Amino acid sequence: MSMKELLQERKDSIFEKWLDRVIMTYPSESSNFFKNKKNRFDNPIGSTLNKELPILLDALINLNDLDEVSNSIDEIVRIRAVQEFSAAQAVGFLLLLKKVIREELDGKTEISVNVDDWWSVEDKIDRMVFMAFDIYMSCKEKIFEIRSRSFERQTYVLDKMAERAAERSDKGEEMNAN
C-alpha cells in the first residue's frame, strides 16, 4: 500500500486526532467550546480549524502544490498570531500532523511504508511549517505597524493637548497680569 493510499484510508482518523491536538494548544476552558460549537460566528476559531485543516490534509495526501494551501495556512496562522501565540506555538499545529501520522502507523505490522514516500510527506509538512512561519512574521509585522501608528497618533494628540493647555495657561497669566 502506498503512503498516499494509506493516508487516504486513514484520513478521517488522522483529521480527528489532529483537530483534537490543535484544539489542545488552546486553554482547556476553550477546548470544548472550539470542538463543539460549529457556527462560524459563534466560534470562528473552531470553524476555521474544521474548514482549513482538511484542506491541508488533502493537499498533503495528494501532494498538491503548496501555493494551493497558502490561504488555509494563512487563515489559521493569522488567528494564532493575533492571539499572542509565540512563533513556535503558532506554526506548531503543522508539526502535530507528523506526530498524528506516526501514531497512526506505529505498531501496525501490516503496514509497510516506502521510506522515500514518508520523507516526501515529512518534507511537505516542513515546507508548510516554513510557509506558516513567514505568514506569522508578516502578521506580527503588521500588528507592530498598527500599534506603532496608534502610539504615534496618541502621542500627537497628547502633544496638541499639551500645547493648547500651555496656550491657555499663558493667556490666563496675561489676563491676571493686566
Description:
With 178 residues, this protein is mainly alpha-helical. It has one domain: Globin-like. The protein has helices at 3-9, 11-23, 28-36, 44-62, 70-82, 87-105, 115-177. Helix 6 runs antiparallel to helix 7. The mean pLDDT is 83.
Describe the structure using short key phrases.
178 residues; mainly alpha; Globin-like; 7 helices; 0% strand; elongated
Per the principal axes of the C-alpha atoms, what is the gross shape?
elongated
Number of helices: 7
Number of strands: 0
- Examine the coordinates and then state which fold CATH places here, giving the name of the CATH topology: Globin-like
End-to-end separation: 99 Å
Indicate the mean pLDDT: 83
What is the number of domains? 1
How does the major sheet shape up?
none
Structural class: mainly alpha
CATH architecture assignment: Orthogonal Bundle
- Rg result: 25 Å
Taken as a percent bin, the fraction of beta residues is under 5%
The SSE order reads HHHHHHH
CATH class: Mainly Alpha
